[in-house]
Specification:
Strand order of the largest sheet: 9-8-7-6-10-11-12
Mean pLDDT: 94
Shape: globular
Number of strands: 12
Strand content: 15-25%
Low-confidence stretches: none
Number of helices: 12
Oligomer: single chain
Radius of gyration: 20 Å
CATH architecture of the largest domain: 3-Layer(aba) Sandwich
């Protein structure tokens, strides 16, 4: 079989498009996985080490995420090769060129992801008029500003903690990836009585068993500094957060941060996946055998795309937050109940639920495919 079809299965991907304009340094991949339910929504991920395989895995996660959330959208993703911290002018040139290159791909709606934000989506909207996660000034619901994904993660935690026999008040939380998702999740959980005892960013980690002042961390991050610059707490490398005792561990950064070689170090009772594909399959299976509950990414972190879908149809911020709460709570309950009843990992239960919804949508299409 041709290498281009190595990802193919019964539901997708519908398209894999490579974009290359060496004169301006533009190199990107778009994967439109499945559009049976409607045009795909998925973020643009900007990083120096992305790949076609990662893009497909992320697009498939979006297919399952949108199906599980009951959205009239399929799954897609763009990965853009580059430094997310490049000067604004260079980033704008790349994003605008990317948008123009994909102007005719109406099966894909741009959204923000790691390395991109509302401003980037404003550039896309200016070029082709097809983006969500726009600034307020353009009629958007700025999902990073309001913390839509972090809100959903906190909602999933409210359902999952009692399932594990744990209470939110006093629950120790560790967050791997103190960016947009992790930062907002930390605030929402702290407001509900949880105690953040460990955080990490790209430069290192911070641990304080007595609790970390998240407002102080926000001030540091606003200055472009690291969590390691906090005046209190034990400092370490980024991986040190794996070893911190806690009730709730939230990965909110890159893919595959927990894998077969380090999963044995995790000292948590519950994982709520704020990042996309943060664990390898083998790592999740090992945690299941150890009795650690993992709420999978496309269930727990769907807040951003739910917000984008509400925005796409002209809904308000209040509607978006209420919809996120309703859908993520219901799906978390269903997945955990199914997993418990069948004695299977939550991911397996979640995939079965999402796949059934995708295939039902495909059955309504003329040729039965997305």
């Amino acid at each position: 079989m041709d290498d281009a079809f190595r990802f193919a299965d019964s539901i997708g991907p519908a398209k894999i498009i490579q974009v290359y304009e060496p004169a301006i340094g533009l190199r990107a991949v778009l994967v439109v996985d499945n559009v049976a339910a409607g045009p795909s929504i998925g973020g643009v991920r900007l990083a120096p080490d992305v790949s076609t395989e990662e893009c497909f895995r992320l697009a498939r996660a979006m297919t399952f995420k949108n199906a599980a959330a009951g959205l009239a959208h399929g799954g897609g993703k763009v990965v853009l090769f580059g430094d997310p911290h490049m000067p604004s002018g260079g980033k704008e040139r790349l994003i605008r060129a990317l948008a123009r290159s994909l102007a005719d791909e109406h099966d894909y709606i741009f959204g923000p992801d790691m390395g991109t934000d509302e401003t980037c989506m404003a550039w896309v909207h200016d070029e082709i008029g097809r983006a969500v996660g726009l600034p307020r000034e353009l009629g958007g619901i700025p999902l990073d500003e309001i913390g839509a994904t972090g809100w959903g993660v906190a909602e999933a935690a409210q359902v999952a903690l009692p399932h594990c026999g744990l209470a939110m008040k006093g629950a120790r939380v560790v967050i791997q990836g103190y960016g947009s998702v992790g930062r907002h999740a930390a605030h929402f959980l702290a407001q509900q009585g949880a105690v953040v005892v460990g955080v990490a960013d790209s430069q290192g980690s911070l641990c304080d068993p007595d609790g970390i002042d998240v407002a102080q961390l926000d001030a540091l991050k606003a200055e472009g500094r690291s969590v390691r610059d906090a005046p209190r707490g034990r400092k370490g490398d980024g991986d040190a957060v794996i070893d911190i005792d806690c009730e709730l561990w939230i990965p909110a950064a890159r893919p595959d941060v927990l894998h077969e070689h380090n999963v044995g170090r995790l000292r948590a009772k519950l994982v709520i996946q704020g990042a996309n594909i943060p664990f390898t399959r083998g790592a999740e299976e090992q945690l299941h055998r150890q009795g650690v509950l993992c709420v999978p990414d496309f269930i727990a972190n769907a807040g951003g795309v739910i917000c984008g879908a509400v925005e796409y149809r002209g809904g308000s911020q209040a509607t978006a937050l209420a919809t996120i709460s309703e859908k993520i709570r219901a799906n978390t309950r269903q997945v955990l109940a199914d997993a418990t009843a069948r004695g299977i990992p939550p991911r397996e239960a979640a995939q079965a639920m999402a796949l059934a919804r995708v295939k039902k949508a495909m059955g309504f299409r003329r040729f039965g495919r997305g």
